[in-house]
Amino acid sequence: MRSIKSVYKVGHGPSSSHTVGPYRAAKIYKNKHKDADSYSVCLYGSLACTGEGHSTAKAIKSAIEDITIDIDREEKNLKHPNTMVFKAYKNGKVIDESTIYSIGGGSIRFENNDGDDFVEVYPQKNFTKMLEACKKDGISLPEFIYKSEGNEIKDFLKEIWHAMESEVERGISVEGVLPGGLSITRKAKLLYERRCYNESPDVTMNRMISAYAYACSEENADESLVVTAPTCGSCGVIPAVLYYMRHDKGFPEEEIIDALAVAGLIGNVIRTNASISGAECGCQAEIGSACSMAAGALACLHKLNLDQIEYAAEIAMEHHLGLTCDPVNGLVQIPCIERNAVAAMRAINAVDLSRFLYETRKISFDDVVDTMYKTGKDLSEKYRETAHGGLAALYGDNNK
Questions:
Q1: Which helix (H) or strand (E) holds 87?
Q2: Number of Cβ atoms within 10 Å of the Cβ of 303
Q3: Which of 30, 81, 118, 365 is most deeply packed, by most CB within 10 A?
Q4: How many Cβ atoms are within 10 Å of 111's Cβ, its own excluded?
Q5: H/E stretch holding 225
Q6: What's the CA gap between 14 and 269, in Å, rounded?
């Protein structure tokens, strides 16, 4: 299994699969063929269906200015729903043709290649084996991660954490309308500042966490810099809960870094054994994964034991099974922004249940990850980030 660095990337929204991945693909492709005098790319599958709303063409053109972009919405039997075929030209002749897949979270894979990011770090292939290694050595999950990756991973995680803090702080200070034509008003600042009369501590917590989740998601929808956690579309969940714990509850940054490491490990298990791509497995792979990661991080932060951390992550994923990805007009706004806030609060609920009930659990985290992947493969194509089903069909331009 690769480094947890493969889970966290900093890039421009609104979609890790549709902007960060294609941007990286175009950059790498151009560097491989510097002698070309022009380029073209054809977008297939989800990239073709939501490309305009997800700013895919804009991302590619920012990497290669002189490129022709074609769209093919009819191609079937794709090996991956986020497929791009790049061509390089010299004197009008094709000198190379490469198929590249945007596999989720900003990661890409060239056809017949393992991928572009990071070496194998963990010999264990699932969470069960990792927990067994921890118990055998009598160490915590953060200690296991630092032992496997080296202490230098802490510096990387600090940079990621500070980028997350910046997302939240920018988002709660901005007002206005998000781009894209849906006339969605930013709500993070409103949630952050509007306190109800006689507001209880629980209501305050939910309001603040929601404000932080909205802040990140609205920054993402506005194509600002965000952290894939594990994707751009789900970028608000983990920052929301950890920002609350750091800045509202006073947890030290060192413990936040440990929690972020655990979240990264959980996300890494999911992307290795299933998927974090909405185009491949629906929103359960994005929001479900983010909620699971956040629940594990919170359980770690509260010093719960290994079994409790696993159970929190399992509960969070299990109760997102079947969640569809149906972005209205291909924009990461409806229902995506609100979902981040709901998932952040659900992560807290998962930790509360795991604290008391972990000894009664029947389903392992690995079992629910496998179930999520199989469920995602069974979902109709129209519910996997194509803007052809669900809310997108009922409310979006496709219904006009």
A1: strand 82-90
A2: 10
A3: 365
A4: 12
A5: strand 225-227
A6: 24
What are 27-86's pLDDT values in tens digits? 999 999 999 999 999 999 888 887 677 788 888 998 898 899 988 887 778 888 889 999
Give pLDDT tens digits for 298-318: 999 999 999 999 999 999 999
Residue 44, amino acid? Y
Token code pair at residue 144: 């296991």
| CATH class entry, domain 15-110 | alpha beta
Q: How far apart are CA 69 and CA 352, in angstroms?
A: 49
Listed residue (84, 333, 311) closest to 184, CA to CA: 333
Query: In the 3-class helix/strand/coil scheme, how is 3-32 assigned residue by residue?
Result: CHHHCCCEEECCCHHHHHHHHHHHHHHHHH
d(CA 278, CA 384): 6
Please name the helix (run of DSSP H) or strand (run of DSSP E) that holds residue 41, with its range, or none.
strand 38-44
Tell which residue, 258, 264, 240, has the closest CA to residue 303. Answer: 258
Residue 6 CA to residue 8 CA, distance in Å, equals: 6
User: Could you give the CA distance from residue 384 to residue 283 in angstroms, rounded to a whole number?
Assistant: 7
Where does the chain hold its CATH 3.30.1330.90 domain(s)?
15-110
d(CA 232, CA 340): 11
Under a CB-based contact definition with an 8 Å cutoff, are residues 256 and 362 in contact?
no
Distance CA 318, CA 133 (A): 24
Sheet holding 38-44, edge to edge: 67-72, 38-44, 82-90, 93-104, 107-110
In the chain, where does DSSP find H-type helix?
Answer: 21-32, 45-49, 56-63, 127-137, 141-149, 153-171, 188-193, 201-221, 237-243, 253-273, 278-281, 287-301, 306-318, 336-357, 365-378, 390-395
- Which residue in the block uniquely carries the two structure tokens 């789900």? 234
pLDDT single digits (tens) 204-262? 999 999 999 999 999 999 999 999 999 999 999 999 999 999 999 999 999 999 999 99
The pTM assigned to this predicted structure is 0.89
Name the β-bridge partners of 83: 44, 101
Strands 82-90 and 93-104: antiparallel
